[in-house]
Amino acid sequence: MSDTSLAGDLRRRIIAGEFAPGERLSEAALAARLDVSRNTLREAFRALAQHGLVEHVPNRGVSVASPTTADVVDIYRARRQIECGVLRDASPLHPGVAAMRQEVERAEAAVEQGDWATVGTANMAFHRALVSLSDSPRLERAHEQLSAELRLAFLAIADFESLHRPFVTRNRAVLDALVDEGPEAAAAELERYLTESERRILGAYARLGRA
Amino acid sequence: MSDTSLAGDLRRRIIAGEFAPGERLSEAALAARLDVSRNTLREAFRALAQHGLVEHVPNRGVSVASPTTADVVDIYRARRQIECGVLRDASPLHPGVAAMRQEVERAEAAVEQGDWATVGTANMAFHRALVSLSDSPRLERAHEQLSAELRLAFLAIADFESLHRPFVTRNRAVLDALVDEGPEAAAAELERYLTESERRILGAYARLGRA
DNA sequence: GGACCCGCATTGTTCAACAATCGTTGCCAC
DNA sequence: GTGGCAACGATTGTTGAACAATGCGGGTCC
Fold it and tell me: Which parts of the sequence belong to the HTH gntR-type domain (chains A, B) (predicted)?
């Protein structure tokens, strides 16, 4: 997915929460830890910075991105635009619908076992599959970037259960609406989903006393 | 706009057509020409690659991107999704509308003087201003990437007059529709614009016998 | 307490070298 | 002539060390 395996590796580590959002990433220290040269690491940083996963301030190094409330609001505005738009133009017969169903079922199974991390990744995979209905690599790429940033917000909040559990049934509702009632109804359902999800994150941010 | 000034510099050079689309960019040669180190240049390459401006194939270096017909189709699909969606939600009272009008007038003035390069940049600036109506940095960023790639398609075709002249009046029509008839009518007008523009590029590609 | 200055740590950039990989060229057998 | 095969050359990938440039914090002086 990423050019250098190093960038992909770092990306995975960040998304996995190995580095806290906002944490400063020292070139020398990280290069030593990953056993790569500083120059190679800097190349990877440039790639990640364009993804919005790390923030790069000239002469002050890079930190793991830490979305502010303004960022969250913007991410959801963009998500609404992309996901709802895609869904409105989507066909219920698109092969990607099977992938959506698969992720919903994976999430439902994970809920049974209280595995909230898996619930979260399945939820996000559901929306990735949703965007894949557009058959547009560029829309998928844009959405992928939004998801990565959003994941950092989830990490900052850490309460996976309250962030992800309520949305399994909502994802199921979107899927059912698409199959049974058509794209327009599904888009409306999705819009409700996104509004609710955004509200919940902002609420958690407020409780954390966060910018 | 870009982190390192070098990446921005390269970006400007590529967009200005200093390097032909598809041209291979040798690290050693370009580093010498720009009077920077190979390492620094490689960092800039990584940033540009994520923008879609250059293509990076491991062990085979980077080339200036050269959109295929499939790319053009995808770019327009994404543009339609983003631009039309933004316009539908836009208010005619948004300050960005003034910027749109300014660009339309700049394009109209350039048409008078036969300055097709300026017509082209004004047309693209019009659409950037249009997306700015969303007040969403992330949507603007995504759109900016699409524009940069599209510009490479324009460069490959080179016939600026036939690519840009017909669309000045269409941009004007979109603006007028937004102000006089509201967002929905403007979005419909914009959709016609995009369809026509896409058709014209694909036609030119076909005449060039291009992939 | 506030402004100024200096030193320290980190980033930015360069250079030279070597390993890894790709494409090509020339050779040989068939 | 054609098809594979091996060595070569060129380019990219990565490293390590060095030095310049910048930002930050501590200390001093008023």
Answer: 1-67
Verify whether the Cβ–Cβ distance A47 to B49 is below 8 Å.
Answer: yes
Q: Which residues does chain B have with pLDDT short of 50?
A: 1-2
Query: Residue A211 has what pLDDT?
Result: 63
Contact (CB<8Å) A58/B136: no
Q: Which residue has the tokens 């770092």?
A: A10
DSSP per residue over A128-182, as a string? HHHHHTT--HHHHHHHHHHHHHHHHHHHHH--HHHHHHHHHHHHHHHHHHHHHH-
CB–CB of B51 and A51 under 8 A?
A: no
What is the predicted pLDDT for the residue at B94?
Answer: 97
pTM of the model: 0.92
**Nearest residue, CB atoms, A46 vs list B46, B86, B139:** B46
First-residue to last-residue Cα distance in chain B: 32
* Chain B nearest C-alpha distance from A161 (Å): 28
DSSP-derived letter for residue B17 is T
pLDDT recorded at residue B5: 84
Give the distance, in angstroms, between residue A145 CA and nucleotide D14 C1'.
Answer: 28
Tokens read off for B61: 């270096």
Cα–Cα distance for residue pair B188/B196, rounded to 1 Å: 13
Nearest to B138 among A58, A75, A137 (CB): A75
Q: What are the residue ranges of helices labelled H in B69-182?
A: 69-79, 85-88, 96-113, 116-132, 137-157, 160-181
Q: How many helices (H) and strands (E) does chain A have?
A: 10, 3
- CB-neighbour burial class of residue A110 (10 A; exposed 0-12, middle 13-18, buried 19+): buried
| Interatomic CA–C1' length for residue A145 and nucleotide C23, angstroms | 36
Q: How many CB atoms lie within 10 A of CB A27?
A: 14
Which residues, other chains included, contact A157 with Cβ-Cβ below 8 Å and sequence gap of 6+?
A: A163, A201, A204, A205, A208
pLDDT of residue B107: 98
A63 sits in which H/E element = strand A61-64
Cβ count near A22 (within 10 Å): 13
**φ, ψ of residue B90 in degrees (nearest 5):** -85, 155
List A62's β-bridge partners, or say none: A25, A56
**Biggest CA-to-CA distance, chain B:** 56
